[in-house]
Amino acid sequence: MRIRIVAVGKLKEAHYREAVADYLDRLRHYAKTETVEVDDGPTPKVTGALRKAIGERVRVVALTIDGKQRSSEELAAWIETQASAGQDLVFVIGGADGIPDEIARGAHERLSLSRMTLPHRLARLVLVEQLYRAMTIRKGEPYHH
Length: 145
Known about the structure:
Layout: E1 2-8, H1 14-27, E2 32-38, H2 43-54, E3 59-69, H3 72-84, E4 89-93, H4 101-106, E5 109-112, H5 120-138
Parallel strand pairs: 1-2, 1-4, 3-4, 3-5
Helix pairs in contact: 1-5, 3-5
């Protein structure tokens, strides 16, 4: 399984970059993982950049406030189902203006990390931590407890 995180905007603060990098390093023990950052800007430009970064033949998960909320265990089970089906996953995190409608509507899944609005840099950190947690749950490892 491959996991790609496509995010609008860059992580500018060192503490966020370091924390995200730490969880990405941990996550790479379980799946090939990469992060792609696209520049923020006018919606048509962002939409095109996201479409290119997402690629083809992948299961797209748009992180939206109105998406489905899952517990850590439910996320782990969902990832297990996708892995069993041979699906590569792409998680899309929007910038200040969210994810362009065209991308959000075209996603296979809409996932909400919280009903509260999170800044994109914090959403990225929460996402990578939860993906790592899901992988440890799948393997029955003690991190989740």
